[in-house]
Amino acid sequence: MPVVIQEIQINVEVSNTTSTKQASVNRIHDSGNEKQEIISECVQEVLRILKEKEER
Fold first, then answer.
1. Between 20 and 30 A from 3 (CA), which of 13, 15, 18, 36?
2. How far apart are CA 36 and CA 32, in angstroms?
3. DSSP one-letter string for the chain
4. Domain extents for the chain?
5. Quick one: pLDDT at residue 23?
6. In degrees, to the nearest 5, what angle opens at C-alpha 20 toward C-alphas 17 and 23?
7. Rounded to an integer, what is the distance from CA 56 to the centroid of its chain?
8. Taking the C-alpha atoms of 41, 37, 12 and 48 in order, what is their torsion angle to the nearest 10 degrees?
9. Interior CA angle at 35 toward 54 and 12, to 5°?
């Protein structure tokens, strides 16, 4: 029996506080463009999954 998703709720908590170690790692590895690329990839993947579920 197929499962029909009538509604989906996605909650995200974004915080500006990080540990000192994590903040230094972020400064070394993340630039604004890299963050935007990651966000874009995540959005594309979510849209792909929703489209796939809709086709079922």
1. 13
2. 6
3. ---------------S---HHHHHHHHHH--HHHHHHHHHHHHHHHHHHHHHHHH-
4. 32-56
5. 59
6. 65
7. 23
8. -10
9. 55
C-alpha dihedral, 43 to 44 to 50 to 54, nearest 10°: 150
Number of residues written out for the chain: 56
Predicted confidence at residue 16, as pLDDT, reads: 64
Can you give the pLDDT at residue 5?
78
Cα separation, 36 vs 2, whole angstroms: 35
User: In the structure, what pLDDT confidence band is assigned to residue 29 with cuts at 50, 70 and 90?
Assistant: low
